[in-house]
Amino acid sequence: MRTVDVAASRARVWEIVSDYEGAPAWMPVREVVRRRRGTPHPDGVGALRTVRGSGLVVEEEIVAFEAGRRLAWRLMRGAPVRDHEGEIALEGVPCGTRVHWRVRFRARIPGTGPLLAVALSRAVDASLSGLRALAETGAPATGRGKLRRAGSDPSVRESMAEPTVVPDIPSLKNFVGQQLGTSDWVEVTQEQIDAFAGATGDRQWIHVDVERARRESPFGSTIAHGYLTLSLAPVLLPQIVRVNGVRLGVNYGVEKMRLPAPVPAGSRVRVKAELKDVRDMPGGGARATYALAFEVEGGSKPACVADVIFVYYP
């Protein structure tokens, strides 16, 4: 659960969180559209909303709507999780309003739960920071193409460019050989490294023993597993490219992976992508190979370079 105190009335905070289509003003999403009315309020129980983010489109159903107090929803489709449920609860306090945000889910792919939990926590932290700024000042903290930095730091990150949009699967071939863009920076924390070690069983001291790494490691600190860096691709690549008309996307594999430089705990990385090759698949699908280069902020050479392959099905 995440909690934040907002110096605004509960009525004001509720006005913001219950205005679904106004969510891009304070959440790291691009659009929220109500697809079905709820009861007794149009945005009440039973309402269905579509949420569009960076390369991700999900549908949520409202399951609780207690005016001024509590809003809850469940994910219907569109994300690599199951049994996802979220709740925002408002509590009146002397300074204004205390906002509690709870999320629970199960990962569809075994072993990915810890990484998904970190990603969800960052999204919630960014949303709570944006909610507080909007409620207290009336000025949006986020906007289309801009994300507020997660965590306690209220500074705003540099604007993130819109992803390259491929109109449909057959059009992928028109983008072969093109540099598609660069993702936003993302911090690789010791918490993520420990979670990855727990999921994979790779607990070598250079990754998880902070004190020993400080004393003995040539890197001067713990470092991320190379495969942890690579595993950020499905999270960061949708910030760079979006292929429309895709019913299902599958990670097909990796070619020519190298790890030229370490990723110290606490550093920030981003990825650059080029569409290297596209091959037709039966049924109108396509196999796309992306050349990825993961950069470490302030580093002189990439931390990871790899050709990753995704298969898209219409």
Index terms:
single chain, 314 residues, alpha+beta, six-stranded antiparallel beta sheet
Q: How would a textbook summarize the main sheet?
A: 7 strands, antiparallel
Number of helices: 7
Which strand order does the major sheet show? 1-7-6-5-4-3-2
Cα radius of gyration in angstroms:
21 Å
Bulk shape: globular
Q: Could you state the order of secondary-structure elements as H and E?
A: EHEEEEEEHEEEHHHHHEEEEE
Helix content: 10-25%
pLDDT < 50 stretches: 141-161
Structural class: alpha+beta
Question: Beta-strand percentage?
Answer: 35-45%
Instruction: Quote the average pLDDT.
Output: 84
Beginning-to-end CA distance, first to last residue: 37 Å
The total of beta strands comes to: 15
Secondary structure topology:
Layout: E1 2-6, H1 10-17, E2 31-36, E3 48-52, E4 57-66, E5 70-77, E6 81-93, E7 96-107, H2 113-137, E8 164-166, E9 179-182, E10 186-187, H3 190-200, H4 205-208, H5 210-216, H6 226-231, H7 233-236, E11 241-243, E12 248-258, E13 268-281, E14 285-296, E15 304-313
Parallel strand pairs: 8-11
Antiparallel strand pairs: 1-7, 2-3, 3-4, 4-5, 5-6, 6-7, 9-13, 10-13, 12-15, 13-14, 14-15
Helix pairs in contact: 1-2
What does this 3D model show about the protein?
It is built from 7 helices and 15 strands. The chain is of the alpha+beta class. The strands form 3 sheets. Strands 1-7-6-5-4-3-2 form a 7-stranded antiparallel beta sheet, covered by helices on one side. Helix 1 crosses helix 2 (113-137). It starts with a strand and ends with a strand.
